[in-house]
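Whiteboard transcription, Tuesday session. T.W. wrote the structure tokens on the left side:
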């Protein structure tokens, strides 16, 4: 795409009253900014769209959302009248323009003869994913940028199986999207008129109840088996999960918890936290303060769209310890399988799913219970996308997770779900407390039994077009110079997923296995300007595992950062 030509085209075609016009006029002499905003039409893939809000074809704005929705409408129309009648369910988060983008999306779908369902206000991503299957729609759309900084917004697309769109569906949609003229090619009706004549349906509270009923049905223990007086703190980080999470806790009978008041209500600027990602321990600052005052044993946080979930637990010295996604995954996986085994409900053909960059300690836990572990590419389109296939092969789904703090407890929610994960962690903490143990105690027991795993998932942020090019050079360099030894350990196996591997689709990921019970992986992020690294080792002590992983990371980082 010729960025300057596209910039001028937008400037010529936009109304001078459109705020986008003034924004573009202000950068007319800034070639670098014009290139960033117009070098491509914002990428659409299995995670949909995600970008900075602003003017340009590589930004999130009404023109881009309109073009995207019209392309998706054209894609659905090709599937026939039955698909159009089934319709699309749409949700949105708390970010700037999310409600407006949601109503625009519904108005365009309705104008194209496609039934549109919307919520009356913001809802978490997992509820949207659940609703696709519950309503039987052909697709779902969520206007959200998940855990990204406040300047971002996004557009997640789901298909009829309740999963985020597969690679094939995303490619088919993108092909249609690129054919739409964002100024003249979009059909649209008035949102209020669409509601009045029934082409747009606003969902009532009974649909929220259906989602909560589905996740609450996943309970392993209840009643007298739990210490419901366990003290804990919850924060939704000013996002979508505040109301449903609190409703779930009330339904389950927890009676001694507190919410971080400053982060209880939606805030598109995330004033109290800055970067609203609970993967960053700094996001727990207010929760830790309240936790100390409240005497909380457990701190829980969801990200702004409610799909990611992170905890901090007290160690033997009473200090809060931030848990990475693998550690919470160990606790959840073990609790679910242990509980089902004790109850006699664990099937002989059970399966669990993790991503290829998630710790293999969870594989050891699953196998100890006679449950088969399957791998998938990163992201829940790939992870939950395996559920139908494995079900067809006769396996019974038990749980799925990935290291980036995503957990799928309920098979009816085909995406990561911070609310059901929160329910299960709170339940596990209450169950073990009844037995005189904390989650920290249980985690130490798991390490003692299966090995001490040290995991580190750092990344290098490289913004913009130049950053994208450098990340590409980094991956090319490593492929051309595959290490045979790292930090004194021999590389015994390399898996390059660029052409696929076994039953896993192609992806830009390299994975290295060493002869000292360690492995690491490198991949560019699909949604953020980052190159990501994953380092794992299992040793006979925490100290040795940390030392081994540190040396491997230092050597790999030196290799990659040498690429300019």
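and on the right, the sequence the group agreed on:
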């Amino acid at each position: 795409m010729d960025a300057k030509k596209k910039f001028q085209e937008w400037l010529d075609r936009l109304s001078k009253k459109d705020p986008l016009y003034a924004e573009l006029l202000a950068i007319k002499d800034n070639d670098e900014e014009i290139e960033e905003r117009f070098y491509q039409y914002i990428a659409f893939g299995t995670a949909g769209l995600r970008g900075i809000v602003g003017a340009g074809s590589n930004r999130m704005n009404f023109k881009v959302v309109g073009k995207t929705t019209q392309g998706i409408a054209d894609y659905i129309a090709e599937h026939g009248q039955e698909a159009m009648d089934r319709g699309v369910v749409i949700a949105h988060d708390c970010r700037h323009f999310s409600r407006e983008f949601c109503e625009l999306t519904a108005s365009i779908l309705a104008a194209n003869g496609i039934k549109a369902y919307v919520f009356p206000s913001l809802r978490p991503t997992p509820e949207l994913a659940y609703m696709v299957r519950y309503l039987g729609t052909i697709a779902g759309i969520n206007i959200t940028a998940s855990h990204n900084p406040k300047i971002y917004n996004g557009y997640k697309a789901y298909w009829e199986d309740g999963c985020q769109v597969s690679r094939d569906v995303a490619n088919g949609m993108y092909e249609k999207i690129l054919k739409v003229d964002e100024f003249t090619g979009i059909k649209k009706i008035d949102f209020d008129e669409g509601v009045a004549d029934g082409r747009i349906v606003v969902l009532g509270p009974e649909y929220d109840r259906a989602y909560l009923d589905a996740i609450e049905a996943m309970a392993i223990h209840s009643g007298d088996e739990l210490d419901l007086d366990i003290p804990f703190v919850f924060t939704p980080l000013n996002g979508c999960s505040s109301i449903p999470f609190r409703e779930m806790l009330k339904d389950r009978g927890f009676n001694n918890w507190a919410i971080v008041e400053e982060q209880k209500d939606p805030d598109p600027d995330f004033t109290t936290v800055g970067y609203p990602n609970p993967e960053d321990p700094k996001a727990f600052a207010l929760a830790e303060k309240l936790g100390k005052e409240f005497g909380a044993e457990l701190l829980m946080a969801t990200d702004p769209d409610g799909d990611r979930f992170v905890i901090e637990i007290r160690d033997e010295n009473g200090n809060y310890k931030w848990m990475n996604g693998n550690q919470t995954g160990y606790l959840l996986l073990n609790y679910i399988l242990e509980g089902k085994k004790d109850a006699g409900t664990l099937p002989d053909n059970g399966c669990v799913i993790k991503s290829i960059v998630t710790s293999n300690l969870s594989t050891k836990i699953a196998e100890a219970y006679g449950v088969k572990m399957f791998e998938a590419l990163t992201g829940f389109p790939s992870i939950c996308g395996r559920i139908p296939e494995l079900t067809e092969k006769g396996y019974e789904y038990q749980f799925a997770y990935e290291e980036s703090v995503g957990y799928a407890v309920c098979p009816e929610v085909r995406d990561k779900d911070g609310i059901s994960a929160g329910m299960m962690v709170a339940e596990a903490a209450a169950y073990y407390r009844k037995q005189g143990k904390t989650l920290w105690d249980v985690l130490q027991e798991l390490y003692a039994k299966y090995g001490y795993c040290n995991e580190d998932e750092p990344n290098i942020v490289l913004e913009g077009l130049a950053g994208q090019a450098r990340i590409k050079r980094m991956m090319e360099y490593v492929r051309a110079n595959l290490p045979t030894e790292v930090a004194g350990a021999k590389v015994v196996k390399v898996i390059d997923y660029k052409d696929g591997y076994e039953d896993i689709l192609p992806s830009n990921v390299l994975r290295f296995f060493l002869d000292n019970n360690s492995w690491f992986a490198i991949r560019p992020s699909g949604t953020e300007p980052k190159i990501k690294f994953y380092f794992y080792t299992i040793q006979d002590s925490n100290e040795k595992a940390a030392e081994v992983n540190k040396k491997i990371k230092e050597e790999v980082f030196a290799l990659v950062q040498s690429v300019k």
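Someone added at the bottom: The longest strand covers residues 530-539.
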